[in-house]
Design goal:
Helix content is 0%, strand content 44%. It is built from no helices and 32 strands. With 403 residues, it is an all-beta fold. The strands form eight sheets. It has a five-stranded mixed beta sheet with strand order 1-25-24-23-22, with no helix packed on it. The two termini are 41 Å apart. 49% of the residues are buried. Strand 30 (361-363) and strand 31 (372-376) form a beta hairpin. The chain has strands at 8-11, 15-17, 28-34, 40-46, 55-60, 68-73, 81-83, 100-106, 115-120, 123-124, 127-128, 131-136, 144-149, 156-162, 171-176, 182-186, 200-205, 211-214, 223-226, 229-231, 244-246, 254-259, 268-273, 277-284, 292-303, 305-311, 320-325, 334-339, 346-353, 361-363, 372-376, 385-390.
Length: 403
């Protein structure tokens, strides 16, 4: 039975400071990897070819016969890049709208390299909006084999991979776009992974926006954040309808991420409005599972924040927040909110670009130990894939103290 928690709204004021000169020490150096990636929906980072360097997968979701491609990190300072051959083959029998959404990386066949999962927007061999996983055949990203998954009928909005059942292989969480629900897809043994009938899909909940995996209740099992609720991992995840809990006083239609912003040992949650205004973090209390969260506004004027990511950008032990407005919304800001006091009560706003970004991510692309930002807008032309390299180099400690 689906369980909804009691909603108790508690407000608390959070201060946001704007550095007067955007602080030279927080300057991020921009690099354009590709001048135009039309209709880019996601960027995903991972070592696709197994050479120890972080590569970038970019999925395009608008246009005819758009490919899935990845960009190989050739090393250097800054890194040089080479575009791959297409991962997705050209099919003669595609019908209707085409492109890819909800792409992610994970080791789906247990062979030690990264495979790709992505949802198609068209119809293929009579299957509406099929979901594929692309097998990294040689482990170096040079050859791929496509395999259908038993989840179709609606676009994928987001997907994530993790070993949720502790069998040593990545499983899938897939969140559909038009009311198709949230699905836990169990990866079979490696010898069985190429046959669709060996995969099992369980509809674990509902929610049409935002997806994040985090241990919300502290039981060492990954739970699922979707929209403005969280789904509790029942321990044996291959079952329908995980227990669902609302987040107190949280709006709908949000992106979500998680981090312990006040470092009290409990996982807090940050939400942003995908189309409207606002970014908030929700402080977990001892009774968070019963709906007791404390709401802290971070900023009210950011609009269309379609990127939300948590990382410790200055490596001082305090999780910061990456947020970006889409290029069609607000002031198109790409901003890192520095957790200045270590308690989540004072955030310093470092805007690293005013060109916007769509589903940007934080990842150490150049291997210097500091999280960088990778992103791309959702536009038809003049749409660069870009990296902003973190130039902090060494941890910065906030002058205001804190924990």
């Amino acid at each position: 039975m689906r369980r909804l928690s009691l909603v108790i709204a508690v407000w608390c004021v959070t201060s946001v400071a704007n550095p007067t000169d955007n602080s030279p020490s927080w300057k991020f150096d921009r690099q354009v990897i590709c001048a135009n990636v039309p209709g880019a929906d996601e960027v995903v980072c991972g070592d696709i070819d197994g050479d120890g360097r972080i590569d970038i997968l970019c999925a395009q979701s608008e246009g005819q016969q758009l490919p899935l491609r990845w960009f190989k990190n050739l090393g250097g300072d800054p890194p040089r890049w080479k575009i791959s051959e297409r991962i997705s083959p050209v099919h003669a029998d595609w019908q209707g709208e085409e492109g890819w959404m909800g792409s992610w990386l994970g080791d789906l066949d247990g062979d030690g390299d990264l495979d790709v999962v992505s949802g198609a927007k068209g119809t293929f061999s009579g299957v509406s909006h099929p979901v594929f996983w692309f097998e990294n055949l040689k482990g170096d990203g040079s050859a791929w084999a496509e395999h259908l998954l038993p989840v179709n009928g609606d676009y994928i909005d987001n997907s994530r991979t993790a070993d949720l059942n502790a069998d040593g292989r990545d499983d899938l969480i897939i969140q559909k776009y038009h009311g198709g629900g949230v699905h836990y897809v169990v990866c079979p043994a490696p010898a069985d992974a190429r046959r669709i009938e060996n995969w099992r899909s369980c509809r674990i909940g509902e929610g049409g926006s935002g997806l994040c995996l985090a241990d919300i209740d502290g039981d060492r099992c990954l739970d699922v954040l979707v929209n403005n609720q969280w789904l509790r991992n029942p321990g044996q995840p291959a079952q329908e309808r995980w227990p669902a809990f609302s987040i107190a006083d949280a709006p709908e239609g949000v992106k979500n991420a998680a981090g312990d912003f006040n470092r009290d040992g409990r996982m807090d949650i940050v939400l942003s409005s995908e189309e409207g205004k606002g970014i908030w973090w929700f402080e977990a209390t001892a009774e968070a599972a019963n709906g007791k969260w404390i709401r802290h506004p971070i900023v009210e004027d950011y609009m269309g924040v379609h990127t939300l990511w948590v990382a410790d950008f200055d490596r001082n032990g305090r999780p910061d927040i990456l947020a970006a407005e889409m290029h069609t919304k607000g002031k198109h800001r790409v901003t890192i909110f520095q957790n200045a006091d270590g308690n989540g009560q004072r955030w310093v706003e470092h805007t690293i670009a005013t060109t916007g970004s769509h589903n940007a991510v934080a990842c150490d692309v150049n291997g210097d130990g500091m999280p960088d930002v990778v992103g791309c807008n959702f536009a038809d032309s003049d749409n660069p894939l870009e990296v902003w390299y973190n130039s902090l180099r060494a941890p910065l400690h906030a002058k205001t103290g804190g924990k």
